[in-house]
Amino acid sequence: MAQRSRSVPRKKPRQERSRATVDAILEAAAHILVAHGFEDTTTRQVAERAGVSIGSLYQYFPSKEALITALFERQIQRVLDVCTEALQSQGSPSTQQVVRDVALGVMKAYAVNPRLHQVLISEGLKLGMMERVQSFEQRIETVVRTFMLHYSSQLRSRRVELATFVITRAIRGIIWSAAIERPELFEDPELADELGELMLGYLLPTSPSRSAK
Known about the structure:
DNA-binding, HTH_TetR, DNA-binding transcription factor activity, Tetracycline Repressor, domain 2, mainly alpha, 11 helices, about 0% strand, transcription cis-regulatory region binding
């Protein structure tokens, strides 16, 4: 129980000033975690970078584990917001365009600070946060699965559950590889087009864009 309490933030900020303090702490923690890793990160480093006293940090976060928990929850919400907005805003009747929108949405979702995301997944698993990791993946899959079911009559006949798994994991793998090997690709608009082509070839009976070529 004591270990669990150390991994849970102490209180949620209610006033604007308190929220600003917590935001600064979490931004500082994210920067240091990505730069130095969990083992070499200290709460004192985080407090110094955030410009707050160590006592102020401890008012909200009793440990590094609590910072990881809070960052994980914030990252999940940011990713889901991006993904949901992109996948629910299609206005084009073109299936090809919708598929590209989906590719862009999932790409944007996994590209929300991918290096931090990798650190959080890795450390979250070490800290026994498997349920949070699984919940994150399941919630993104739910959004993609909804799209698959809605457009199922226009897509190649596939097992929706399996296809959803393949799409989300394939794009995640590409995005995380880009984060490590080619971070400049996040500034290249053609990356989304290439991911769209990948999905078109997988989901549609034939790829109209390729046939046109």
